[in-house]
Amino acid sequence: MTSHSEREPRFRNRMYLFMLLLLLAYMGMKAWHVSIAVSAFEGQVLEGNTPGAAK
Question: How are the residues of the chain apportioned to helix, strand and coil, as percentages rounded to the nearest 5?
């Protein structure tokens, strides 16, 4: 029994394109989220000693 993607290469190519678009959308959303997080804490200073914090 053959799968749908083996019978129709166009379907397989569309699925690869769909996965690529989902990956790009995820990366875009993560970049937007990180930029908002960085801008929210920009210029704020930690008060006191914070052991184990990233430098």
Answer: 65, 0, 35
In the chain, where the domains are located: 4-37
pLDDT per residue over 1-55, tens digit each? 566 667 788 988 999 999 999 999 999 999 999 999 888 888 887 777 777 776 5
Does this model's pTM top 0.85? no
Query: Which conformational region is residue 48 in: left (phi greater than 0), alpha (psi within -120 to 50 degrees), or beta?
Result: left
Identify the residue whose tokens are 């430098």: 55
- Residue 41 carries which DSSP code? S
